């Protein structure tokens, strides 16, 4: 029996339900591994009806998902039903959204599922309901400690595609906080986790890491900022001394063109947009968000809830499909 991936509900008023249906419809063409959805069946049926998508459903335990997957979309028994209008999110649904994430992680912990794939959440909606974690990445670290015990691991966000892979060293923080949060220790720690998971999960023998600077022209010798030489460069030196294939600090404006990208496997960037703008510009439809540093595999589409197009039937499932495929691949690499 192949253990299924578990796909979470995500924000129910966003495009997640539509993408889930479309991904299942494209399962054969895309060669998807079996997945089960931790979401209410009636709720997904309503979206399918509205969009005219002919999707049969089955309510299953994870152990039955693989057999059901070829002919129906497996939804996990016991998932709560909620009624939402596409494009009209409400904090009242937050507990169900979060509960779906919890259940997915717990099933992986129990050995009943192989990996977690998350549909996008609307962070602001969850914050209104009192959710205290910036996003999935940080919440999944907290769930790791809850379900695996021990200290909370440091979760590292990586946006991956065949074209480019990027890691933001600081993640969901205001831009003005970045210089004070950026320490040599944080950069080294992030790079070590990236190096380890690129070997163990992605199967690279010696991952090549390129670290960006923080300031224009990587500080221009200190004239345009001091962090590049005082914080990033020492991190690169520590990593190199440990045998990690790391270079930098590189000027961020010239490290993403095609010839530059050929020189590294992952770009470590100092803040969220420095990392995510290039990959979303180059590979928006194929990009996958992967969380490194966790005791389990988690992937997600690179985009968000897209409320502006929810319920219209025009959302593209490509990134979710890429996330499901990558989760399947990483599971195979990790378990072999
Ligand atoms: N992994 C996650 O849970 C993520 C969640 N978000 C959340 O999503 C919400 C909305 O964020 P935005 O900045 O508006 O980004 P977004 O990615 O939801 O939308 C940006 C633009 O891309 C379009 N778009 C996104 N996905 C698409 C798809 N699959 N097919 C066709 N068009 C698509 C949207 O229509 C919109 O015009 C925020 O609350 C944010 O927190 C954002 C990124 C990742
Ligand atoms: N911009 C990326 C993003 O918001 C994804 O965050 P997460 O929910 O995967 O932590």
From TrEMBL:
GO terms for molecular function: 4-hydroxythreonine-4-phosphate dehydrogenase activity; cobalt ion binding; magnesium ion binding; NAD binding; zinc ion binding. Its EC number is 1.1.1.262. Substrate binds at residues 136-137, 280, 289, 298. SUPFAM superfamilies: Isocitrate/Isopropylmalate dehydrogenase-like. One of its GO terms (biological process) is pyridoxal phosphate biosynthetic process. Binds 1 divalent metal cation per subunit. Can use ions such as Zn(2+), Mg(2+) or Co(2+). It is found in: Cytoplasm. Pathway: Cofactor biosynthesis; pyridoxine 5'-phosphate biosynthesis; pyridoxine 5'-phosphate from D-erythrose 4-phosphate: step 4/5. It catalyses: 4-(phosphooxy)-L-threonine + NAD(+) = 3-amino-2-oxopropyl phosphate + CO2 + NADH. GO terms for cellular component: cytoplasm. A divalent metal cation binds at residues 172, 217, 272. Its cofactor is Zn(2+); Mg(2+); Co(2+). Keywords: Cobalt, Cytoplasm, Magnesium, Metal-binding, NAD, NADP, Oxidoreductase, Pyridoxine biosynthesis, Zinc. Homodimer. NCBIfam families: pdxA, PRK05312.1. Catalyzes the NAD(P)-dependent oxidation of 4-(phosphooxy)-L-threonine (HTP) into 2-amino-3-oxo-4-(phosphooxy)butyric acid which spontaneously decarboxylates to form 3-amino-2-oxopropyl phosphate (AHAP). Belongs to the PdxA family. HAMAP family: PdxA. The active site is located at the dimer interface. This is 4-hydroxythreonine-4-phosphate dehydrogenase. The lineage of its organism: Bacteria, Pseudomonadati, Pseudomonadota, Alphaproteobacteria, Hyphomicrobiales. The gene is pdxA.
């Amino acid at each position: 029996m192949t253990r299924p991936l578990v796909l979470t509900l995500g924000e129910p008023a966003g495009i997640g339900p539509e993408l889930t249906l479309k991904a299942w419809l494209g399962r054969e063409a895309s060669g998807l591994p079996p997945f089960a959805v931790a979401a209410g069946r009636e709720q997904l049926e309503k979206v399918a009806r509205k969009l005219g998508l002919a999707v049969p459903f089955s309510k299953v335990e994870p152990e039955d998902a693989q057999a059901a997957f070829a002919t129906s979309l497996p939804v996990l028994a016991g998932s709560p039903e909620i009624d939402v209008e596409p494009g009209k999110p409400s904090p009242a649904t937050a507990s169900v959204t979060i509960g779906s994430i919890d259940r997915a992680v717990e099933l992986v912990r129990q050995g009943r599922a192989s990996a977690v794939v998350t549909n996008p959440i609307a962070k602001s909606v969850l914050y209104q309901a009192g959710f205290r974690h910036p996003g999935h990445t940080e919440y999944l670290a907290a769930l790791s400690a809850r379900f695996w015990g021990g200290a909370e691991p440091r979760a590292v966000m990586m946006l991956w595609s065949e074209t480019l892979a990027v890691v933001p060293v600081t993640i969901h923080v205001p831009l003005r906080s970045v210089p004070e949060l950026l320490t040599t220790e944080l950069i080294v720690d992030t790079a070590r986790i990236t190096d380890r998971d690129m070997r163990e999960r992605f199967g690279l023998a010696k991952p090549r890491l390129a670290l960006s600077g923080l300031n224009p022209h990587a500080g221009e010798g200190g004239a345009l900022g001091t962090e590049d030489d005082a914080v990033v460069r020492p991190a690169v030196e520590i990593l190199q001394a440990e045998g990690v294939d790391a270079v930098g600090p590189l000027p961020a404006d010239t490290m993403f063109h095609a010839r530059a990208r050929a020189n590294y496997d992952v770009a470590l960037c100092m803040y969220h947009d420095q990392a995510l703008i290039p990959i979303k510009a180059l590979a928006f439809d194929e990009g996958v968000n992967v969380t490194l540093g966790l005791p389990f595999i988690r992937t997600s589409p690179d985009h968000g809830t897209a409320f502006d197009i929810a319920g219209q039937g025009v959302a593209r499932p490509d990134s979710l499909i890429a996330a499901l495929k990558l989760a399947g691949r990483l599971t195979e690499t990790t378990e072999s």
